[in-house]
Design goal:
The chain is α/β, with parallel strands linked by helices and about 240 residues long. The chain has one domain: TIM Barrel (Alpha-Beta Barrel), CATH 3.20.20.70. Helices cover about 45% and strands about 15% of the residues. Strands 1-2-3-4-5-6-7-8 form an eight-stranded parallel β-barrel, surrounded by seven helices. Helix 6 links the parallel strand 4 and strand 5. Helix 8 runs parallel beside helix 9. The radius of gyration is 18 Å and the shape is globular. The protein binds cytidine-5'-monophosphate (C5P). The site of cytidine-5'-monophosphate has 14 residues, from loops.
């Protein structure tokens, strides 16, 4: 490949890479997006930005041709979940998370109706261990509950799940080749782990079955976020 074509190929965003905009204001989020330029095409808007300008940023990103993942983990009565999901679908967003309870998931799938919005279930928060679940009244281990909820997500018509690197293979096996397996807790081996205790590299997460990886601070907190994103993209290019 000629050098110019190689450079172009190297600077193309990988749509399997999702960068979270974990910032308190729209200004900070816009600045991060501007620094990343064409290296990133898919952004996650979480609860921190939601509390200020989340939907405005989401609409701006969509108008700029980016993909948008609203990580809002909806959990409410079915009518409310259905109406909120319909509004989000109407804004043209791409991914939405809901908690992995059958009633909630079914309501979100109804609310999405024929829109392209993908509904992703959060099975069990990774902050919860077996002791926490016992305290909450669950008789099963975290692993068993994750498996049950993946099966329920599939039955409810969800498009995929959020899965830690350690659950990605299970989700892929249960969901089949088209199922979305979105994996946070990703750390390239050249970056700090921050508070991600059981991280996997981008390549490990993809090899385990992730369809998408969420990788934030190794990119957004880097001295050169654009270069860091391209480094992750080039690592991902080895796994198809
Ligand atoms: O900066 P970092 O890569 O740790 O960001 C990870 C993102 O994924 C954050 O927005 C975090 O809220 C989210 N997330 C996570 N672990 C989960 C679910 C979501 O880190 N189990």
């Amino acid at each position: 490949m000629a050098a110019a074509a190689l450079a172009r190929a190297e600077t193309r965003a990988d749509p399997r890479l999702i960068v979270p905009l974990d910032f308190p204001t729209a200004e900070a989020a816009r600045a991060a997006v501007a620094r990343l330029g064409q290296a990133v095409s898919f952004y996650k808007v979480g609860l921190e930005l939601f509390a200020t300008d989340g939907m405005a940023v989401a609409r701006e990103l969509k108008a700029a041709g980016r993909q948008v993942f609203l990580d809002w983990k909806l959990h409410d009565i079915p009518t409310t979940v259905q109406k909120a999901t319909a509004a989000i679908a109407g804004a043209g967003c791409d991914f939405l998370t809901v908690h992995g309870e059958p009633q909630v998931m079914a309501a979100a799938v109804r609310g999405r109706a024929g829109a392209p919005l993908k509904i992703l279930a959060v099975t069990v928060l990774t902050s919860l261990d077996d002791a926490d679940l016992k305290e909450m009244g669950y008789a099963e281990s975290a692993r068993a509950l994750v498996e049950r909820r993946i099966r329920q997500a599939i039955a409810a018509g969800c498009d995929g799940v959020i899965a830690s690197p350690h659950e990605a293979a299970l989700a892929r096996r249960l969901g089949g080749p088209e199922f979305l397996v979105v994996t946070p807790g990703v750390r390239p081996d050249w970056s700090a782990k921050n508070d991600q205790a059981r991280a996997a590299t981008p390549a490990e997460a993809l090899q385990a079955g992730a369809s998408h990886i969420v990788c934030g601070r190794p990119i957004t907190a880097a001295d050169d976020p654009h270069a860091a994103a391209l480094r992750v993209v080039s690592e991902m290019a080895r796994i198809r």
